[in-house]
TrEMBL record:
Database matches in InterPro entries: Red1 (IPR039278)
Keyword Coiled coil among record annotations: yes
Coiled-coil regions, chain positions: 17-72
Record's protein name: Uncharacterized protein
Keywords of this entry: Coiled coil
This protein's GO CC annotations: exosome (RNase complex); nucleus
UniProt KW Coiled coil keyword: yes
Superkingdom to which the source organism belongs: Eukaryota
Organism lineage: Eukaryota, Metazoa, Chordata, Craniata, Vertebrata
Source organism: Micrurus spixii (Amazon coral snake)
């Protein structure tokens, strides 16, 4: 009777052992898969960090170009406005000179004709 009871306990313990071994094996397998996923994710993370750094460098270069071009556009716009103002002033002077020149020639010619 004790032998049968011990054999029954042994059978039950062996079943528990088998279940726990399977549970440990499944957990270890799951850990291995998670480690593989972690390594793959870390590779993606590192690649993204490198890409982000290059992207930020490119952004910085383009921002510098834009800043320089805006400053040049402002400078050239101001120079153009000054040139237009100067040209307008010169055209105004020439119109006055031509109108005085034309009037004075007319009077000179008229006076010359009367003298003859």
């Amino acid at each position: 009777l004790l032998l049968m009871k011990d054999e029954s306990v042994l059978k039950h313990l062996l079943q528990q052992e088998a279940k726990k071994k399977e549970s440990v094996r499944l957990a270890e397998s799951k850990i291995a898969k998670l480690n593989e996923q972690l390594q793959a994710t870390e590779k993606v993370l590192n690649a993204n960090k490198i890409f982000l750094k290059k992207l930020q460098e490119q952004i910085h270069r383009v921002q510098q170009r834009v800043t320089v071009k805006k400053a040049l556009a402002l400078k050239y716009g101001e120079e153009l406005a000054r040139a237009k103002a100067l040209a307008s002033k010169e055209i105004g002077k020439r119109k006055l000179e031509h109108s005085h020149f034309g009037v004075s020639l007319f009077f000179k010619f008229k006076n010359y004709c009367f003298e003859i």
